[in-house]
Specification:
The protein has two helices and six strands. It is of the alpha+beta class. It has a domain of 51 residues: Head domain of nucleotide exchange factor GrpE (Nucleotide Exchange Factor Grpe, Chain A, domain 2).
Length: 147
């Protein structure tokens, strides 16, 4: 058996220390990279939420005048006006707007509001005011009559 000289033993200790420092550095780099990826993901999610909130505000502002235009179009029966309104609705649908269609369905507290009750049932017989969802979130409850 050979005895290690103090010089060789010191070199082995230095190598072991350097390997330990390298391992720590690699682990620290992995943690920093994971933190960075989480930050990027969180930033993207916040950006999407911000855009959805901005869209929600704009869509809510446009809904009332658009509904009034739709009612006027029903009275006037003007093809040009109907075409513009269809295009307007299509743009809003592309932004994530969906109409709630409750007629003939049972009352749903999440998407509807009862304005009149004509019996003891839960079936929606009439829609007094349309309801809407934007990207799956209710922004205007449908006002309904149940029977």
């Amino acid at each position: 058996m050979t005895k290690k000289t103090p010089k060789i033993q010191t070199k082995h200790e230095e190598i072991a220390e350097l390997q330990h420092l390298l391992t720590e550095s690699i682990e620290r780099e992995k943690r920093v990279l994971a933190d960075y990826q989480n930050l990027v993901k969180r930033n993207q999610e916040e950006r999407v939420k911000f855009l959805q909130l901005a869209n929600k505000s704009l869509v809510e502002t446009l809904l009332s005048p658009l509904e009034h235009l739709s009612m006027a179009a029903e009275q006037l029966d003007d093809q040009g006006l109907n075409m513009v309104i269809r295009d307007f609705w299509q743009v809003l649908e592309e932004a994530g707007l969906e109409e709630i269609y409750p007629k003939g369905k049972n009352f749903d507290l999440e998407t509807m509001e009862v304005v009149d009750k004509e019996g003891e049932g839960e079936e929606v017989t009439k829609v007094v005011k349309r309801g809407y969802q934007l990207n799956g979130q209710v922004i205007q409850h449908a006002k309904v009559v149940v029977k």
